[in-house]
Amino acid sequence: MTRPPKKPRSSGRPVDTVGQTLERALDPLTSALKRAGLSMGEKPAATPTLPEKPRTAAIVKSALPVSPLAVAFPDIAIIPGVEMATGTAGFYKHERPDLLVMKFAEGTNAAGVFTRHGVGSAPVDWCRKHLAATSGANVRALVVNAGCANSFTGKPGADAVRRYASAIAKRFDCRQRDVMVASTGVIGVLLDDSKIVQRLPDVEARLHEDGWAEAAAAIMTTDTFPKGAYAEALIDGEKVRIAGICKGSGMIAPDMATMLAFVATDADIAPAALQTLVSLYTRTTFNCVTVDGDRSTNDTLLLFATGQSEAPKISRAGDRRLADFREKLEAVLLDLAQQLVRDGEGASKFVKVTITGAESPASARKIARTIAESPLVKTAFAGEDANWGRIVMAVGRADEPIDRDRIKVQFGPLVAAQDGLISPTYDEARMSAYMKNAELEVSVDVGVGKGVATVWTCDLTKQYVAINGDYRS
């Protein structure tokens, strides 16, 4: 888990404002994208679902107690064209896996979405630059380390990335720019790239196809369980596989959610189409979860397509043959994103916040996020208190169009307030009983339009303070 410095942002337009403008600009495209078959996930009922898959019982041990909301790691099939191995490079005081290397078949295409954080990091800069230079074509490797974010480290940090990317490129007989990188850990600490380089011979010797669980464990920081998702889809009648892992527990907020995520498929999808898909579905998945409202310097989501299946090559994101794949890809990303919330530092409640009746989807998202990130709302969830007044407070301070006299607030099926005042059917005992559930739903209609959005969050407990107070100790 990365931690941002307390140094103020550099001058310029605030990142939140830029992100908000982009969100609003995208909204008019929604109907056109839906006509092309690209679901934008705006309707709560349209949340994509993965087919039922058995999940392995084992959960890798963490230094922290496993979240009560944890899910076990799924069974993930081999993705042709992907090999991986982990190692211990020594970025932690105690010995644990902290290095992941993935090798991809020749011809693998890649796309990425990265943090909008004003500081950024050397690994993010590297990936952005080289994905742009190659247009995402023929990416051959990924190197990830945990324990050191290599963020706010200036030119020395950039030089460190270049050196270990060069070392990987020589071993895999590719160009430096064909190597993607990612880091997570403490901000402001320069990465010792020699620790990675000296482990490469051992890691390369152990590359294998079936290593998703160990890969997920190696990139954990304050995570209490490894996170993975898997789905199969049909493209023109041919089966393709989609597998992904991610890490993240604290400092989770949109633009993007604070995390590293790596997804691979054996489908053959052109780089431009791949980039369109990952950009669209990040919006409805990783950018719709929040734990604490803080955004990281190192957020990275990379999607790799090896082209090793029997499915035909797809050049356009809106190709009708890609319909099932699009649905399954969004489902994999949402599964991973929701696991971040389930592992929120100290979390004991998994909460779905849905806004309806807003002026626009962007307005609905802002209202939902304001509720989901309110410390007063989140501590009420922790205390199992159906304090609907705090929900109303958060709705009002989102500074979005609302009709006070038409607002309706529900906890699950129970109506707490409607038409601008407490519901005549309000029952404190039933509300209190509902709040004892581990998974909660809060719905608010703000009465001014048709905009809909859903955000997933968790409660805020004393354990969150304890974890973050001791983070560098």
Helix-strand string? HHEEEHEHEHHHEEEHEHEHHHEEEHEEH
CATH structural fold name of the largest domain: L-amino peptidase D-ALA esterase/amidase
Could you tell me the radius of gyration in angstroms? Answer: 22 Å
DSSP summary: helix tally: 14
What proportion of the residues form beta strands (DSSP E)? 15-25%
Instruction: Please tell me the total number of domains.
Output: 2
Per the principal axes of the C-alpha atoms, what is the gross shape? globular
Describe the structure.
With 473 residues, the protein is an alpha+beta fold. It folds into two domains: 40-48 and 59-342, L-amino peptidase D-ALA esterase/amidase, CATH 3.60.70; 350-469, Ubiquitin-like (UB roll) (Roll), CATH 3.10.20. 31% of the residues lie in helices and 21% in strands. It has a six-stranded mixed sheet with strand order 13-12-11-14-10-15. Helix 3 (122-134) packs across helix 4 (154-172) and helix 10 (361-373) packs across helix 12 (388-397).
Descriptors:
473 residues; L-amino peptidase D-ALA esterase/amidase; Ubiquitin-like (UB roll); 6-stranded mixed sheet; 21% strand; disordered N terminus
Short description, anyone?
The chain has 473 residues and is α+β, with helices and mostly antiparallel strands. The protein has 14 helices and 15 strands.
Which helices and strands appear, and what pairs or packs with what?
Blueprint: H1 15-26, H2 30-35, E1 82-87, E2 99-104, E3 109-114, H3 122-134, E4 141-148, H4 154-172, E5 179-186, H5 193-197, H6 200-205, H7 212-218, E6 227-235, E7 238-247, E8 260-265, H8 271-283, E9 300-305, H9 323-342, E10 350-358, H10 361-373, H11 375-382, H12 388-397, E11 408-411, E12 414-418, E13 421-422, H13 428-434, E14 439-445, E15 451-458, H14 462-469
Parallel strand pairs: 4-5, 8-9, 10-14
Antiparallel strand pairs: 1-2, 2-4, 3-9, 6-7, 7-8, 10-15, 11-12, 11-14, 12-13
Helix pairs in contact: 3-4, 10-12
